[in-house]
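Lab notebook, entry 667. We have the chain sequence and a SMILES string for thiamine diphosphate, and the next step in the workflow is to get a structural model of the bound complex before anyone spends time on docking refinements. Request logged below.

Task: model protein plus thiamine diphosphate, output structure tokens.
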Amino acid sequence: MVTAVKEKTVAHNDLDPALIVRAYRVMLLARATEDKLASLYRAGMIKGGVFLGKGQEALSTASSIFLKKGDIFGPLIRDQAGRLAFGDTVLDTLRTYLGSAQGPMRGRDGNIHRGRPRDGYYAMISHLGALVPVVAGGLYARRLRGETGVVGVTSIGDGGTSTGAFHEGINMAAVEHLPLVVVVANNQYAYSTPNNRQFACADLLDKAAGYGIAGFKCDGTDPMACLETLRLAVQAAREGNGPQLVVATLLRLVGHGEHDDAGYVDAALRKANVGRDCLEVGARQLIAADLATADNISQWTKEAQAEVETALNKAQREKGPNPNAEDWQAISTEHLVDGHYDAEEE
Amino acid sequence: MSVTYLEAIRAAQEKALTDDPRVFIYGQDVGAFGGAFKATKNLAAEFPGRVMDAPLSEDAIVGLAVGAAIEGARPIVEMQFADFSTVGFNQIVNQAATLYYRTDVPCPIVVRLPSGGTLGAGPFHSQSMEAIYSHYPGLVVMTPATVEDAYSMMLEAVSIDDPVIFCEHKLLYYHLKADKLPDVAQPAGKARIARAGRDATLVTYSAMLHESLQAAEDLVEEGWQIEVIDLRTVKPLDTDTVLASVARTGRLLVVGEAWPWGGVTAEVISRVATEGFGLLDAAPMRLNAKDTPVPYHPDLWAAHRPTATTVAARLRQLLTQ
Ligand SMILES: Cc1ncc(C[n+]2csc(CCOP(=O)(O)OP(=O)(O)O)c2C)c(N)n1
Ligand SMILES: [Mg+2]
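Result returned:
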């Protein structure tokens, strides 16, 4: 059975106060981490690109904070916050950017292309959309193994919704009735390309009806709304209601990557509701709900920055991989490694 | 005034749009933004409606180009990185590449692939895909190594009636410069002797030309004269020029940045071994990237790809065996 599209903008009555605070502190930690990454990039200390999620912390945190051990999370470009909420660390983040041999990617891959698949934390490839069917596949296997109550969440941008893999993945998940939550961060642009060159439907949420799955809409700049929406979506998936599509509207408050000044972003959007900084919105919400004082928030901010500094000190002292000690093998089956090329080198 | 490799590609597209109303450009961010690398900078303003931002849909982008070509247009499509062309692979190798053979209707599309490794780019922004596309009948695969070729071969790519996979190397985009754009061009499909020599033939293409020329230069002190051939187009592959050179030198090294299994280097050696076995004084050699994904860390990347140092080392092996 598939649930009809229930387009709703939810209220936030049922959220656990401790979870709200935890979510906000994750957002602060993500922001502190990314601020540091930006300055490392400007100082020339990171090789390759730096792609940040500033402005998307609320949605990203909400995407994974309702997941439990044993669930699956497939984050994408703008998900520093969701990664941390799922158990990734600032240290592993910095290790991956700096190419430490001790990071999860061991210098073989970098930046946002990181994960620990054995822990349900899937490592994205760059090709957008490609992770949707992969997370669906993870869930499919869990079901084959008889595991119940497992949820998989993956995220994507407005641009990524135009890929074949997004379409095929969601359609397949719907046919298989898998507990997959796809979180679309509609930040109005795919690199420089605006929504009106990306899709022609009135709302990306309309796609849910086409796939026969449930859909939720939320204001991505509103942390409480993000949390409540994802709470419902994850719960619905966990309870066996099949795939859930969440569409949030927001704006990335940085360039596509740190090389990009985002000059193409419409100035009116920056001033509009979508251009709000979710950290500022969240601070107001916490204070209004008596969950924190302004002093608490500045204290947490300092603690987050200190945590980043500590991690950076450690990551910077770690060595990169040694090319001469590398095994230079891309398969795990020792006896099937094509050793010919090593011999050629002698 | 000087012009970079990237500017040459931009200028060629500008000329193609100017000269031929059938030409249009389609790809992600190619419009007002001018493309991820700025290869289409200002073209959208200069040619309204003919340089358009595409949705993030490589399969559909190539498919659209094929349809337009059937109707007489001459589309140039840009993949943001060569690596993402795998998402449009089916349309390239099954739709575009088979059209003429099956229907007698040619398919004049150009698929631009920003190719090859750069510092810190990692497994998905570094790939060299010329071998994979060359494997499929029905495609022309160009791999320009110089500013002049980037310009003239892009123009030729647009003018020929078949699908062209245009592998432009990102490492050359900004730093490779020429004094001016060429007036006359060597046709595609012909290799070029980039440096004459008598002791060994080094066949290469794209960015590896520059590592190879450096290696050849380094060996001069040791008394060796290396002939360096730039293939320019890897499909068709100019076997005659290669064989003629091997006939003079008796030794062959083939260098490529792509992975080692099969590929352009293997193809060149296979042709020389089968058609020019008697010309060889020593077993031919080749040098490629290592057989793993392209690594992110600069030290791993430097060891993964051939460099002037490793090319020179391989040449010494070849010359003394
Ligand atoms: C299949 C594919 N094509 C092209 C790219 C190059 N690319 C990287 S990010 C990006 C824009 C993504 O936009 P969106 O999906 O909206 O995510 P956002 O960056 O806005 O978070 C593009 C085109 C890619 N990664 N994958
Ligand atoms: Mg976007």
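Notes for the group: The mean pLDDT of chain B is 98. Worth checking against the assay data. The CA atoms of residues 194 and 228 of chain B lie 5 Å apart.
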